[in-house]
Amino acid sequence: AQSVAQPEDQVNVAEGNPLTVKCTYSVSGNPYLFWYVQYPNRGLQFLLKYITGDNLVKGSYGFEAEFNKSQTSFHLKKPSALVSDSALYFCAVRGPNTGGFKTIFGAGTRLFVKA
Amino acid sequence: GAVVSQHPSRVICKSGTSVKIECRSLDFQATTMFWYRQFPKQSLMLMATSNEGSKATYEQGVEKDKFLINHASLTLSTLTVTSAHPEDSSFYICSATPRGQNPGNTIYFGEGSWLTVV
User: Fold this and answer.
1) How close, in Å, is residue A27 to chain B by CA atoms?
2) Distance separating alpha carbons of residues B109 and B118, to the nearest angstrom
3) Which of A11, A30, B49, B96 is placed for a possible disulfide with B57 were both Cys, Cβ 3.0 to 4.6 Å?
4) How many CB atoms lie within 10 A of CB B108?
């Protein structure tokens, strides 16, 4: 079955420290990979995506993600966390084998950044 | 970037009544829109795919007669929760992809609608 895994329910990091939110996927073919952020009681905001090309993708608000095909991972990273980065982060996959290009979401990882 | 608007952002209705949620793409045309449901502290559950000018495609386990979807134009899809019950209370989110673009392009989400059935 096609799936996306975010192994951590919650990530805690101190402000100014680097952060990583993990994502692995199990989708056949060449999927498209996305990261979204959700603030309380709000919809999802697009952060970045990998389609093809350079494995390191840079996105909004200083976030970046590295696509690793051999490990089927797409971890989200930021060199220096801000308190305002605290939110719920979703990894998502879309592709020809996800049922008509539907988006499959991970369970989400809650990021807490302490001042 | 592209904007997707949902209305209302919050609605409270009585059990047994119906409530309609609108999803509009404000600056692009969307032949396909998606409706999701999100329970507290959980991921998004795809309910149905809304196709302009044709019937919606529902995911397994989603009652199509309870969750009516109408995609009457290239910029508007509506979700009507019929005969609502308290267990229908949830956060509903729509998303849309610009018409004509390939599936690798970004999907844009609405701000979501909180439904509370009392």
Assistant:
1) 15
2) 27
3) B49
4) 24
Contact A41/B6, CB-based, under 8 Å?
no
CA distance B39 to chain A (A): 11
Identify which of B109, B103, A55 has the alpha carbon closest to the alpha carbon of residue A64. Answer: A55
CA distance B66 to chain A (A): 22
List the beta bridge partners of residue B28. none
Hey, are the CB atoms on B93 and A105 less than 8 Å from each other? no
Rg (Cα) of chain A, in Å, rounded?
Answer: 14
Tell me how long chain B is. Answer: 118
Digitized pLDDT (tens) for each residue of chain A, 115 residues in all: 778 999 999 999 999 999 999 999 988 778 889 999 998 878 889 899 998 889 999 999 999 999 999 999 999 999 999 999 999 999 998 876 666 667 888 999 999 999 9
CA distance B21 to B9: 9
